[in-house]
Amino acid sequence: MDLAGKFSMKENPVLPGNLRTAVFEEVRRTFVYPYSTFLCLAGNAILVTLLWFFVPTGYRSLFFNVQGIFFFPIVLASWMVADVPATNEWAPDSLRVLAAMGDEAMLTRLLRAKHLVLWIFVTPIVITVAAIIGGVTGDRLSMILCIGWVASVPLSSLGLASLVGIIWPYHPIPLKTRLKKRRQWKHMWLRWSVLVVIPYVIVPLFAAIGFGPTLILFKVAKLDHTTVHRGALMIGLVITVPLAAFVWTWGTRYGARLTTKRAAQLRLYLSDPLKG
Question: How far apart are CA 154 and CA 123, in angstroms?
């Protein structure tokens, strides 16, 4: 049976009545094979850790603009969400999205549930890392400031990154199937390859919106970006937390609105997994 046949035989989905139910459903979906969200988060965490600690100092600036040890949990949080779960949220959940099409409140709820589940998985890890660093260095204030950042800013980048998957979604097709359909290389391989790689570029850029106030303060005060300046980080955090909340709230609402505007194109694409 082809992909389209499997798609058409699935049951009609049940949409969540509130955000709490939506989050629980999203957690359940995360634990279903092939566990793609877990694999993406774990893979990115391992990658950034290897690059941070094992790449020679002279080459580390190719990957990171900051180097201080307390910046590691911040970079870790940004990289863990910089993958396809952050930018391709509609296509893997095609049935529910199609059922919710036209209902902006429901679409907003689905988006926010997906983001909150990513936040639930990522935040405890990076907070633990920040706490360990704080315990080793004895710098408790920097630890608290760092925890405040990693607990808030990733949501802002998720709110914007999800727009990519609304404009350019792609179906989670097994690699074996893509190989069989390699003659359809434009949408099965070229389009897919670009959309798999692009999260690593744009999600950190979106995260920079939240971290921007702190970086500006560092630049204005001509501070060394390889160490944490607690005053600049504290002022930046005061600006960053409400900014992150606003960006995430606006981003998810706009994502639902954009989905409604693109309903015709999305219905055509999401209903046919053979489109790649």
Answer: 9
- Secondary structure (3-state) at 219: helix
Task: Please report which confidence band the pLDDT of residue 142 belongs to, taking 50, 70 and 90 as the band edges.
Answer: confident
- Give the Cα separation of 91 and 270 in Å (integer): 6
> Quick one: pLDDT band at residue 16, thresholds 50, 70, 90?
very high
How confident is the model at residue 5, as a pLDDT? 47
CB atoms within 10 A of CB 48: 20
pTM over 0.70: yes
Crossing angle of the two packed helices 153-167 and 140-150, in degrees rounded to 10: 20
Q: How far apart are CA 104 and CA 167, in angstroms?
A: 16
User: What does DSSP assign to residue 275?
Assistant: G
Angle value at C-alpha 249, between 244 and 252, nearest 5 degrees: 120
Give the span between the Cα atoms of 127 and 132, in whole angstroms: 9
Structural domains of the chain, count: 1
Say how far apart CA 79 and CA 75 lie, in whole Å.
6
Q: Which residues contact 49 (CB under 8 A, 6 or more apart)?
A: 76
What pLDDT does 161 receive? 85
Within 10 angstroms of residue 148's Cβ, the number of other Cβ atoms is 18
The residue segments making up the domain with residue 69 are: 3-275
Please say whether the beta carbons of 149 and 74 come within 8 A. Answer: yes
Residue 37 neighbours by CB under 8 Å, 6+ apart: 30, 85, 117, 118, 121
- Residue 95 predicted with pLDDT over 60: yes
